[in-house]
Amino acid sequence: MKRILIIGNAGSGKTTFAKKLSEKTGLPLVHLDKIYWTGNWEHLERDKFDDILQGELEQSEWIIDGNFNRTLPHRLKYCDTVFYFDIPIITCLWGITKRIFKSHGKTRDDMGGNCPEYFDKQKLTLYRNVISFKKQHAKKYDDLLKSAEGIEVIRFKSRRRAKMYLKNL
Hints:
By secondary structure, this protein is of the alpha/beta class. It has a single domain (3-168), classed as P-loop containing nucleotide triphosphate hydrolases (Rossmann fold), CATH 3.40.50. Helix content is 51%, strand content 17%. It has helices at 14-25, 32-36, 46-57, 72-76, 89-103, 121-147, 159-168, and strands at residues 3-8, 29-31, 37-39, 42-43, 62-65, 81-85, 152-156. The strands form two sheets. Strands 2-5-1-6-7 form a five-stranded parallel beta sheet. Strands 3-4 form a two-stranded antiparallel ribbon. α5 (89-103) crosses α6. The chain is globular. The relative contact order is 0.22. The model has no long low-confidence stretch (mean pLDDT 92).
């Protein structure tokens, strides 16, 4: 377990798990949001993002936190382990709501640039994306993970299971 992807719905607990896993294993942690967002909710151009991501993928060890569905098939070619947070939608909705209130007006440490949390129109889109995540992505994720050879896939159906995994690590 040297090259790890952590994927799943927004608010599922990916980032919290990634931070704790990095602390336990000593593996360097890469937040895709930190690469993508440059400040004031502006983002990198696709080619620049892909170049930086490729540089990270070529490292010998890492934990990469985040979905960025477009890049998932490519990232799977480099990883040896995937943690898939297949968490109930209501838990994810609660997770993003809690995150918005906890970090309101501040930029989280897993974000790039100056991107403070606010409840605005963009967050309403995030809520819609969380609700539609399984319908839009579950089959694609399942198919990609089934076809990925030589990769250990660990699927969490609850945050409690993820916490237990870390405790037993």
